[in-house]
Amino acid sequence: MADPRSTAVVIPALNEALRIRDVVEQTLVHCPWVIVVDDGSDDGTGDCLRDLPVTVLRHERRRGKGSALRTGFAAALAQGASGALTIDGDGQHDPADLPRLLAAAARHPQHIVIGARLRHRAAAPPHRRMANAFGDWGVAWAAGFRIADTQSGQRYYPAPVLALGDVPGEDFVFEAQLLISAARQLGMRCVSVPVETRYRGQDGGPLRRSHFRPLRDLYRITSHVVGQVIAQGDVWHEYARVRAQAPLIDTLIDDAR
Predict the structure, then answer these.
(1) Is residue 162 part of a domain?
(2) Overall domain count for the chain
(3) Is residue 214 in a domain?
């Protein structure tokens, strides 16, 4: 397994007071190094964490998820991180899956590891399933290989990905572009680990409404990606080549869960 002591967990947070403390406390059980980036919250998100052994960085105004991740990655690299895990602050991801992502990272060096929402996928709202499938299609086309879940925010990035400069795009576009930039600039592929998505908290209570807006954000992702696909040339041949591949999925059972 990759060493959790040299791996920072970066949690971008915008108005996550409802669940952020639970998320961080569960994360600390598995990984001792947590960086929360409070992206201009006005609900006291950062105040919920004052007594916990974590680093809280704050943007005075909202700058978007992409900017929050950049801030967290820069802080992790400055402190010598060998890589970073990311999860969202709303409780949708299960921090107990983080060791499984680290174990997959050890089995697949120089890969981005994605916690792919493949388990009980039918339980997801239909509009989210359709949006995810469409996004997977476009990002895979631009990256040059199929990816099981391109929109999941639960990931492991090796340090060279954290250090990539001039990665364009904001909000959810940034996460999609990271996969494309890592593939093009570093020759780095993705491996997916099947995980479940939680639609209610462990206490049975609701999660806050997702910041992801399918129509708005898929338009942004698609319009951002299409130009890159066209620039590569030989569009349809490349599409056929990518579609002929199967996404890389790590299903090896380990003892980390």
Answers:
(1) yes
(2) 1
(3) yes
Predicted TM-score (pTM) of the model is 0.83
Flag whether 248 is in a domain: no
pLDDT digits (tens, 9 = 90+) for 16-50: 999 999 999 999 999 999 999 999 999 999 999 99
CATH number of the structural domain spanning residue 153: 3.90.550.10
First to last CA, the chain: 12
The position carrying tokens 């990816």 is 147
**Backbone region of residue 166 per phi and psi (left: phi > 0; alpha: psi in -120 to 50; beta: other values):** left
Containing structural domain, residue 146: 4-243
Which tokens hold the place of 207? 């999660």
The answer as to whether 200 is a domain residue is: yes
Q: Which pLDDT band, with edges at 50, 70 and 90, does 256 fall under?
A: very low
* Contacts (Cβ under 8 Å, ≥6 apart) of 180: 139, 142, 143, 225, 228
